[in-house]
Specification:
mainly beta, six-stranded mixed beta sheet, four-stranded antiparallel beta sheet
């Protein structure tokens, strides 16, 4: 469900039950049980190296976490906004922009800007497009990536299961949606997008209706979808979901 490769080639990956550390040199795989997750409900969705000996993990049902390598223990962070603790169940992935700011996509709270961390307490600021929504059915941001705005400053693109393809300007704190309440034929099924990747001038968006391609220069979808089953129109077919590939820094040409 998530991948990260360290500079020495050590691969960290998550499955439905917890976190694994795999050393290709010795073919050794070590498993760390994620909060006794023997049912696979609390899956890890993103792995990020923050400093030596520490990984930051996003997870369903368990929010934002720190994994301490020395002890092999997980620690759930307490999120605080303006001095008040907030509850976050579903954290999806973190993103560090080129300006150094850190962001988190969530289910239910939209986007979060991560501030200072003091021990277990993590300061955050929330940015949501549905201001009055208070449950996980709205303000759903899954995939998140950076692109450069017209002013040369970093922008955030995100895939949302309730609003489609969204853009967020960290400077103005304004949202813009490319598919929300618009007629884009067969591009997104009910404005549902689940993951996103930036390949330069093109954003690739996985949806419940296949894969959509958005041209940032032309500011429009230039290819609506690639169908796995052209006869099917239901969400159980043509459904693209999470995707991640990491390059092995030690062995050129090896990808996980």
């Amino acid at each position: 469900t998530a991948l990260h490769c360290d500079a020495d080639g050590t691969l960290w990956y998550a499955d439905a039950y917890g976190l694994h550390r795999y050393k290709p040199q010795t073919n050794q795989d070590t498993f760390y049980d994620f909060y006794g997750n023997n049912q696979g409900y609390h899956k890890i969705t993103w792995i990020e190296r923050t400093k030596p000996g520490e990984l930051r993990l996003s997870a369903l049902q368990h929010g934002l976490n720190i994994f301490h390598e020395a002890s092999g223990k997980f620690e759930r962070l307490q999120l605080v906004e303006n001095g008040k603790e907030i509850t976050l169940f579903n954290a999806i992935r973190t993103l560090v922009l080129s300006d150094g700011s850190e962001w988190l996509s969530t289910w239910g709270h939209g986007l979060m800007r991560l501030g200072q961390r003091n021990g277990r307490q993590q300061e955050v600021n929330r940015f949501a497009w549905y201001k009055k929504a208070i449950d996980f059915r709205y303000n759903i941001a899954s995939g998140i990536c950076e692109f450069t705005g017209d002013d040369g400053k970093p922008m955030i693109a995100f895939a949302s299961e309730d609003a489609g393809l969204g853009f967020f300007n960290p400077q103005t704190e304004q949202f813009q949606f490319q598919t929300y309440h618009r007629e884009v034929p067969t591009t997104l099924n009910q404005n549902t997008a689940t993951w996103i990747a930036n390949t330069g001038d093109i954003l690739w968006v996985s949806t419940y209706n296949g894969v959509a391609r958005y041209d940032l220069n032309r500011q429009q979808f230039v290819m609506h979808h690639f169908e796995l089953n052209s006869m099917a129109r239901k969400t159980e077919y043509n459904r693209a979901s999470f995707d991640q590939v990491v390059a092995d820094p030690v062995r050129p040409g090896v990808y996980w």
